[in-house]
Amino acid sequence: MQNFMYHIPTKVLFGRGEIRKLGGEIKAYGSKALLVYGGGSIKKIGLYDTIVNILNENEIPFMELGGVDPNPRITSVEEGVKICREKDIDVILPVGGGSVIDCGKLIAAGTRSGSDDIWGIVTGKVPIREVLPVITVLTLAAAGSEMDTSAIISNMETHEKTGPSNPGMRPKAAIMDPEYTFTVSKRQTAAGTADMISHVLEVYFNNNRGAYLQSRFAEAVLKTCVEYGHRAYNTPNDYEARANLMWAGSWAINGLLSKGAPVSWSCHAMEHELSAYYDIVHGEGLAILVPHWLRHMLKEENVWKYVEYGVNVWGIDPSLPEMEIANKAIEATADYFKAMNLPSALREVGIDESKFDIMAERAGKGLEKAFVAMDAGDVKEIYRKSL
Amino acid sequence: MQNFMYHIPTKVLFGRGEIRKLGGEIKAYGSKALLVYGGGSIKKIGLYDTIVNILNENEIPFMELGGVDPNPRITSVEEGVKICREKDIDVILPVGGGSVIDCGKLIAAGTRSGSDDIWGIVTGKVPIREVLPVITVLTLAAAGSEMDTSAIISNMETHEKTGPSNPGMRPKAAIMDPEYTFTVSKRQTAAGTADMISHVLEVYFNNNRGAYLQSRFAEAVLKTCVEYGHRAYNTPNDYEARANLMWAGSWAINGLLSKGAPVSWSCHAMEHELSAYYDIVHGEGLAILVPHWLRHMLKEENVWKYVEYGVNVWGIDPSLPEMEIANKAIEATADYFKAMNLPSALREVGIDESKFDIMAERAGKGLEKAFVAMDAGDVKEIYRKSL
Lengths: 387, 387
Prior knowledge:
- Two copies of one chain form a homodimer.
- Chain A is an alpha/beta fold and 387 residues long.
- Chain A has two domains: 11-181, Rossmann fold (3-Layer(aba) Sandwich); 186-385, Dehydroquinate synthase-like - alpha domain (Dehydroquinate synthase-like, alpha domain, Up-down Bundle).
- Helices cover 49% and strands 9% of the residues of chain A.
- Chain A has helices spanning 22-29, 41-44, 47-57, 74-87, 98-111, 118-123, 186-204, 212-234, 239-253, 267-278, 282-297, 303-314, 322-338, 356-363, 376-385, and strands at residues 4-6, 11-14, 33-36, 62-65, 91-96, 135-138, 153-155, 160-162, 173-176.
- A six-stranded parallel beta sheet of chain A has the order 2-9-6-5-3-4, with helices on both faces. Chain A has a two-stranded antiparallel sheet with strand order 7-8.
- Chain A is globular, with a radius of gyration of 20 Å.
- Chain A binds chain B through residues 1-18, 178, 210, 212-213, 216-217, 219-221, 223-224, 227-228, 239-240, 243-244, 247-248, 251, 259-260, and chain B through 1-18, 178, 210, 212-213, 216-217, 219-221, 223-224, 227-228, 239-240, 243-244, 247-248, 251, 259-260.
């Protein structure tokens, strides 16, 4: 096990009706809020009204930034920063899924950055110093942004999708009420589950056999996704399924699973290029790539990890030959995605090979420390097989 | 899944040589430390000198309280509070295992309590208000006190072993270097592993099937104890084994596993009476009680939980009859303890039935919410079978 620092101070208020505690949490950190949200689903489910009432009852003045897109745009961040600076906002309140929360985090990092180059904060050119406190209300089990330090933002002009990680951007508190996800569409439920599974697999597939506890924790999250992904997909109002998926989504990427072992985000790096050029649904891109990525890496010398995965997550008979277990595990993963009608080929989401070179070149950087060291050639090969 | 609040802000610095960061952690919270330790093992392994050097190099004045006993005494806490008050100590630095850390936590809670009734803080009579920050250096994988909110203290005059839980007592930072546990004796390694297993089993055996992720997390910790307990017992200098046990010990009881399901500490309640009257090794008392507790609770209607335990932790063939899986799982647990030469009967640790009535009466309080509701009669029955 490698040395590590573990520090996840986010306070989680989990379960039905926990929103009632929102006022107290905001007031613990600030006095004037920016309410950030997406396309209006929070209005449909009544959550917007609930929150506005809470803010009013607690006499917390607030401004609004609505309309944040999936694969959130830098333009939304810039708009938010402008509002926060003009109105002296001191706490950011993103209400939504990962896109909204990521946008909120960057606004939090940008407001007091002393720079007008907000895209520079996203790329790391402008250092992150003071970050406004972020309090989130989660409405989608997927990205895990509610408990982690990262924010991913898209620049549609330059086809870049990237973002920084900073401890200051980790939300101070997260309100997680599984009922808010009852109305998440089948398509987004499936994509969110694929995102979570990919988060775990990308850190679980590492070469450190000694980080044993972390691998078992990873399997716990994977088993939970497998157990409840289909159930939430088929019965959207199943509280138990939504609750387990929501909590699993946070632990998939809050950092626990990656402590003590080398980490390299490979599928996410490959998918971010797809989204940056084609603006596809992130989890759908991952569902396409993950099985091909697993197949591409499989070798005699690393089959042990696939065996762990197959036996411990998918319950495959451990007495079978190792390569057979590995291939069965990969097929089980692919079948699991297909059963939720997730796409299994790039063509299905409108992607051809015309941009493979540039996307592979960009994604291939930094993958030399992956479970199997990869470069642009490997990425292109995975894209090709995913066509 | 029940509603819950999750908030574990302890910063963990894990791995070889992380002690070098101690000075910075202390200075983040205070300017004058109380170094608390036990019987001197930290002097034997050189850790005492290392810490004194760090404190001196960082110009952090400090006082010392050594000689804290296993099953720490209220008298040690009182002594520590006296020193802290007289010398204006503002940060507590326990270096040791759970006993030392628990003693340090109570000193932290007592110093600014405004009361001289320190035992009143332990029993809850005197409320906990301001708690001094606690920074710990862990030298034993067992109690999990390094990341939790509790402290258990013994009063040998009144034969009471009890303690409060308060978020303020959760250590701000914990330095966890597995090498410090290389010299832990076989006996203490075994007892520590039994303590960890008991922590997990007591929350894992609950009636909420819907807290699925938590049950899988619990199995991850249990599998880690099973994998590495014997290994650390047999090869004390095995870093991987010591590291996994140390990290598992923190997660066994830091709170994650018990979120979302009803919790009732039953074996610990029963064992605390044994320690309070006979001053036995805590983990040895648990190793005796746990198998009998599991046998006592087993019924047709709750066998499903034993099946989960047997199949997922012990790898027992799921096609066997359920009751057979359950009994095999209990025997596997008992055998696991025996293989580390842990006692399996109360007589082995000098306990007869003379105090069963008073101990059962005390331990039986509050067990009506256990996996199987229990009272003093049940506890006495378990004590009897454990003779």
